[in-house]
């Protein structure tokens, strides 16, 4: 068996395993779930920012509920984004939702940090 034949078989299998015909704007199920996780993480960032602003102003409960919500949403979307990136078969543009998974991971991290800061400030002022 020649070396050329040994190298050609894995390359042919790799080409056939990739998704073909997925356009830039085609909504696959992987892209849908990654985008949903990224939007949920974005909501966590907004909630965390509002909770942080409320804890600085020191009115009412100090944004404790918002801080806990931002922490929970951030942690959930960080785990979801990490799992999505770990099981994705291809890179950006293959229809596997890699960009949305990365956005969910990054925005989830930001939401977690904002929630953690808001929770710390609300406990100090309360």
In short:
The protein is mostly helical.
N/C terminus separation: 75 Å
Q: Report the portion of residues in β strands.
A: under 5%
Order of helices and strands: HHHH
Strand tally, please? Answer: 0
Q: Which stretches are low in confidence, meaning pLDDT under 50 for 5 or more residues running?
A: none
**Helical segment count:** 4
Q: Could you give a short account of the major beta sheet?
A: none
Q: What's the rounded overall pLDDT mean?
A: 78
**Which percent range fits the helix content?**
over 70%
Rg is 21 Å
Tell me, what's the shape? elongated
Summing up helix and strand content along with how strands pair, one would put the structural category as mainly alpha
Q: In words, what does this structure look like?
A:
The chain has 126 residues and is mainly α. Helices cover 76% and strands 0% of the residues. It has helices spanning 3-17, 29-57, 64-87, 98-125. Helix 2 runs parallel beside helix 4 (98-125) and helix 3 runs antiparallel to helix 4 (98-125). The longest helix has 29 residues, at 29-57. The termini are far apart. The model has no long low-confidence stretch (mean pLDDT 78).
């Amino acid at each position: 068996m020649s070396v050329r034949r040994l190298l050609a078989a894995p390359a042919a299998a790799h080409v056939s395993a990739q998704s073909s015909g997925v356009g830039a704007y085609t909504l696959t199920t992987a892209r849908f779930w990654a985008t949903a996780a990224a939007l949920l993480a974005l909501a966590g960032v907004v909630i965390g920012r509002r909770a942080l602003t409320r804890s600085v102003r020191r009115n009412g409960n100090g944004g404790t509920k918002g801080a806990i919500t931002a922490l929970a949403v951030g942690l959930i979307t960080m785990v979801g984004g990490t799992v999505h990136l770990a099981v994705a078969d291809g890179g950006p543009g293959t229809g596997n939702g890699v960009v949305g998974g990365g956005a969910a991971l990054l925005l989830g991290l930001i939401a977690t940090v904002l929630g953690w800061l808001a929770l710390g400030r609300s406990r100090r002022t309360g």
